[in-house]
C-alpha cells in the first residue's frame, strides 16, 4: 500500500468499527542520532536474521508524526531503550520534552540495570511518565538483575505499564525467552507488563504467563504480518486464547521501523477473523482503558 492507500483503508476500517481512532502502543520516536543508529542496525540485520529489513517510514520526525495522524492514530508511544549504562536518564529527558510538545504521544520512559536506575525512574514517574519501555535483547541484561528490583517494585506500585521486548525474536539474546521474565513476575506479580510482539516466537509460553498473571498483556506488533509469518508463524491452535484474552491484547505496529506498510499491520489482524468486537478492543478500547484515554 502507498501512504494514500493506507489512509483510505484505515479510514474505512475505523468507520466500519465506529472507532474514534487507533491507539498504537508500540511506536518509536527517539533523538535523531539514536534513530539513525537504529536504522543503521536494521540496514545490517540481514546477516543476523538471514533476511533484509527495509525501513518503510524512514522520514524526519515531523513527517512521521503527520503520517501517524493521517492514518487516524489517536495516541502512540515514543519507545526508547538504552543499550548501555548512563544512557537511560538522558533518553528520559528527551522523551519528557517530546511528550510535552506532542500531546497525542503517551509520555514514555525507560531504564537500564544500574545503581541510579531507581532514582531516574522515580523522577520520570513524578514528571508524568505513562508507559515504560524495556528491551532485554538490545540491552543484553537479565530482567531479574538485582539492580532492577527497586525499579520493578516502584512501577508495580505505580501501576504504570511497561512494554517489554523479552521474547527471542527476531534473534535470541542471552536473557530472552519466557523464563527470565517469569522469575520477575513471581516476585512482582502485579507488574503491568505488555509483552511486545506477543512474545515472538514463544507465543504459547507468553500466553501462559498472561493466564497466570492478571496484569500481563501482549501487543500485536508485527505478528500475523506476511513478514513475521514467514519466519515465526503464530500457532493456529492458539486462536482460542486470542479470544480468551481479548481484553488484554493491544495493537502495536513498530512504526517507523517496519518492513511493510502500516495498513498491513491492521490487515493482518482482520485476516484472523476474530470478529469486529475483538478488533475494537485490540485496536482501541483496551489501550484507552489502560491509559485513561476517553
UniProtKB/TrEMBL annotation:
Keywords: Hydrolase, Lyase
Domain (Amidohydrolase-related) ranges: 23-293
Pfam families attached to this UniProt entry: Amidohydro_2 (PF04909)
Gene Ontology BP terms: secondary metabolic process
Domain of life, source organism: Bacteria
PANTHER family from the UniProt entry: 2-AMINO-3-CARBOXYLMUCONATE-6-SEMIALDEHYDE DECARBOXYLASE, ISO-OROTATE DECARBOXYLASE (EUROFUNG)
Span of the signal peptide: none
The keyword Cell inner membrane appears for this protein: no
GO cellular component, one term: cytoplasm
Molecular functions per Gene Ontology: carboxy-lyase activity; hydrolase activity
Key word GTP-binding present: no
InterPro entries: ACMSD (IPR032465), Amidohydro-rel (IPR006680), Metal_Hydrolase (IPR032466)
Protein name as catalogued: Amidohydrolase
